[in-house]
Specification:
With 335 residues, this protein is α+β, with helices and mostly antiparallel strands. It has 5 helices and 20 strands. The relative contact order is 0.16.
Length: 335
């Protein structure tokens, strides 16, 4: 399935830009173009072209009260309705069709989120480590990848690729087996806990020594169809950390990948620069593979051969199938 074929995804909140981004700015979502702009009340997202003569509004001017078109000076308020048309004769009312379709924008974790459909929830999914535990939060990156958003989220949940994809960091091809694990279904998705034995991950705990090995539990959770949470737990032998990852569909073949980190300890015990440099290496290993994957993502459970270790990613396909309204009873092929 191509990302634009699953209409229900438009009802999800997706990251559209960092809070610090200059505006007005063009934004691509689901193969369509929008404009992000700022007024005195905050950020707004609207259709990208003026309803008068089709000028691109990212070339316009923010007035404080709204956005002014660069072509004929039409001004639009925060609700998208035209508030001033210079060419109108005195006393002539503004045409009712002189309006931009607008979409809600909320700020969370230093990132601007929007929904261009009918919001399925009141806002972006919460993040336990940031919201309840108050860990140190840092945006790692928000960048464009040549990959389907489905593939990025699927990779975040996949348990068997690290042994081979991450050989330059913490992966070990001589230990490819994934321990048995169970799936806990949640109101918004599912959660799993998987024991792991890894080497090379010292910098993520604040230790500049990649020869160390660790036993840990990885908690992987799907918070929304395009949002994941990963928690690495070391049982007090080293500080924990968590990744919050979301993939925003630009179109069928490209995504903006957002990743935010939450660190359990302070800067002295978990230096972010050390953590960030190592994590970047891990992410780049993923990117090399994901940018070669097919953007047509099979959501039918029977379309692929699945193994016991694929329970996470198989459950993800089942969730997407339900979201698409496909509730067939066929069982997946496993080996």
């Amino acid at each position: 399935m191509k990302i634009t074929e699953l209409a229900a995804l438009r009802d999800q909140w997706v990251p559209i830009e960092l809070e610090t981004a200059p505006t007005p700015k063009m934004v691509r979502l689901f193969g369509e173009t929008f404009v992000l702009w700022k007024a005195s009340s905050g950020f707004h997202l609207s259709e990208a072209y003026c309803p008068h003569r089709g000028a691109r509004l990212d070339c316009g001017t923010e007035t404080g009260e709204g956005l002014m078109c660069p072509y004929h000076g039409w001004r639009f308020g925060e609700d998208g309705r035209a508030t001033h048309i210079p060419q109108l004769d005195p006393g002539v009312p503004i045409p009712p069709r002189a309006v931009l379709k607008t979409y809600p924008v909320v700020l969370k974790y230093g990132v601007l989120w929007s929904c261009v459909g009918s919001p399925a929830t009141g806002g972006p999914p919460g993040w336990h480590e940031a919201d309840e535990l108050g860990w140190r939060v840092q945006v790692d990156f928000f960048e464009s990848w040549r990959s389907s958003a489905f593939r990025i989220i699927d990779n975040n949940l996949d348990q068997s690729h690290p042994a081979f994809v991450h050989q330059g960091t913490f992966g070990n091809p001589s230990r490819p087996l994934v321990p048995r694990y169970e799936i806990e279904r949640t109101p918004t998705g599912f959660r799993t806990r998987i024991p792991q034995y890894v080497g090379g991950a010292g910098p993520q705990m604040g230790v500049d020594d990649e020869s160390l090995t660790f036993d840990r539990i990885q908690e992987a959770e799907l918070l929304a169809p395009l949002v994941t949470r990963i928690r690495l737990m070391y049982g007090n032998t080293a500080p924990d950390y968590s990744f919050y990852g979301s993939a925003t569909p630009i179109d069928d073949e490209h995504s903006n990948y957002l990743r935010i980190s939450a660190l359990e300890r302070d800067e002295r015990e978990q230096p972010y620069s050390l953590f960030r440099a190592y994590s970047r290496r891990v992410v780049d290993e993923d990117r090399l593979v994901l940018e070669t994957t097919n953007p047509d993502f099979p959501i039918e459970p029977t379309a692929e051969v699945h193994l016991r270790c694929d329970r996470n990613t198989l459950e993800y396909r089942r969730l997407l199938s339900r979201l698409a309204g496909r509730t067939g009873s066929a069982r997946a092929v496993t080996a």
